[in-house]
Structures are given as structure tokens and as C-alpha cells.
Amino acid sequence: MKKATPLKLVSLASVSLLMAACGDDTAQNGDEADLGEQLNFTITGIEPGAGITETSERALEEYENLQGWELETSSTAGMMGQIESAISNEEPIVVTGWTPHFKFEMYDLKFLEDPEGVYGDSEYVHTMSRIGFEEDLPEAYAILDNFSWEVEDMQGIMLEAQDIEFEEAASNWIEDNRDTVDSWTEGVAEVDGQSIEIGSFPWDSERASAQVMLQVLEEHGFDVTLTNVNPSILFQALAQGEVDATVAPWLPTTQGAFFEEYGENIVDMGPNMEGTVIGIVVPEYMDIDSIEDLPANE
């Protein structure tokens, strides 16, 4: 796994300080070649196993101007730290990004246009289950099948969870949105301790949805186990019947390849959220609007 290295961070900081000392404002309006050098021709990414990481690696191949660039993988927390540092100094930064995510609540950010369509259009988050789940646990299937919410709901939980535990943030959302939750469980009989395993991904967006679903199912009498794994492992586990259900997959782009591989042995219950977006993100103050505006590393 390739980590963000202190050397790169020192180099980026040194270049930024030198440009600032010379009175240069390239971060906002300067020469494109200077912008590339300030960024070390590097896009800041997240974990290697994330769907957006694989899509971004494909973007480096599809866009001629990006073929000399590097995608630096680290972690979501590491990416957020670099965003905070760059924005506090109005320095340039290019990151992989997606909504829902609380960074859009905290900072003025924008997606760069994607003329090649590598990142696709708006996506949907789907609910899926193993084959036979509906017959084995019909009450749980009914609740999961009814589950539907908005980008703002997930993003609100993610933002609140920066100050409190995700469990508490999810509980607060449930109490504040009881009518919505009741619409998921309406007409569904309560159970007495039936076991169910929910699979999810170890990222904040999915931590929000998984915690909400865990608590709603527990309120209805289920004994819930929550397992967080990378997408490839979750899709395989669903296909092999080792996990009961999930509310995490993003389609058609982010986890589309995994669904294509395992979908014949998985029940797709349909979208639970629409309007999600993935792509390349920069601060609003950067004077570029398209991935093609990023300078080639020649």
C-alpha cells in the first residue's frame, strides 16, 4: 500500500512558501505549469481498495494531460488533513471526492468537469442481499426494501459525527426523522432476537447508513451484526451467502465492476439513495474548471 510520504508534504510546503515569498498567486490565477509544480503533479486520494481510487487510476490513463500525474493513496482522514492545510493557506490541492461527504459542508469545493466521462453521471446507492434472504428473514427484507433517504440525510450524520460518535449521530437522526423511519417499518411485524448480518464499507458515508439501519433493525427486535470490509470482499460474501444484506454499494460506476462479477448471485433490491457523485475535486478559489485544465507533466 502506497502511503502519503513526509517527503512529498515537505516538498509541497516548501514550494508553496517559496511562491508566497515571491508574491505569486498561482494557486488562484497563475500559470498552469507552475500549478502542476506546486502540486508535484499529484492527486491526493484515499484508500487503495475504494472504488473511486480504481476509477481515478483509470482517469490517469484516459486523460492525456494526466498521464504524467500520480495518484497518492493514503486514507480519508489523511486526505481531509491535507485539504484543511491547503485551504487554510489558500494553496492549491487536487483530491478525489464524492458526495455525500461532510467536506462539502465544511469547505467551498467544486467538482472538475469530466469531459471523458470516466467518473460517470450521478450514481445511486443500492440495497442488496444474498439469495434466499427474503424467504429466511422476510421482516428484515421488508424494512431494507423500504429503506430510502436523501443525500442531505447522510451528509448531516457525517458532519455531526465529526464531534460525536457515529452511533449517537445516527440515533439523533432517527429521532429527528421518526416519520421517515416509521415509513420503512410500517406494517412489518416485530421479531424476537432473529440474527442478521449487515455488510458495509469502512468509510464515513457507509458508516452513516449502516448505523441507521443497524439501529432501526434493532428497534424492531433483530440481533444485528455489522461487518465492515472492502467492496470486493463484501460482494463476494453476498454472492456466497456469508452476509445477509447491505445498503452500501454505489452503482453504476463506483462498484460497477464488482456487481458485474458477482451480480448473478446477488439480489439487487434497487436504489436507497440517488444523486451521489464521484470525481476530482478542488477548492473554489482555484481558477480551473475541468480535469483537462490540469497541466501535463512534461
Give an overview of the whole structure.
The chain has helices spanning 6-21, 26-29, 32-38, 51-62, 76-88, 103-106, 133-136, 138-146, 151-160, 166-176, 178-185, 204-219, 231-239, 256-262, and strands at residues 42-44, 70-72, 95-99, 109-111, 123-130, 195-200, 223-228, 245-246, 250-251, 266-283. With 298 residues, it is an alpha/beta fold. The chain folds into two domains: 6-120 and 278-293, D-Maltodextrin-Binding Protein, domain 2, CATH 3.40.190; 123-276, Dipeptide-binding Protein, Domain 3 (Dipeptide-binding Protein, domain 3, Roll), CATH 3.10.105.10. The two termini are 27 Å apart. It is found in: Cell membrane. Residues 34-175, 195-296 form the ABC-type glycine betaine transport system substrate-binding domain. Residues 1-27 form the signal peptide.
Provide the fold topology.
Blueprint: H1 6-21, H2 26-29, H3 32-38, E1 42-44, H4 51-62, E2 70-72, H5 76-88, E3 95-99, H6 103-106, E4 109-111, E5 123-130, H7 133-136, H8 138-146, H9 151-160, H10 166-176, H11 178-185, E6 195-200, H12 204-219, E7 223-228, H13 231-239, E8 245-246, E9 250-251, H14 256-262, E10 266-283
Parallel strand pairs: 1-2, 6-7, 6-8
Antiparallel strand pairs: 3-10, 4-10, 5-8, 5-9, 5-10
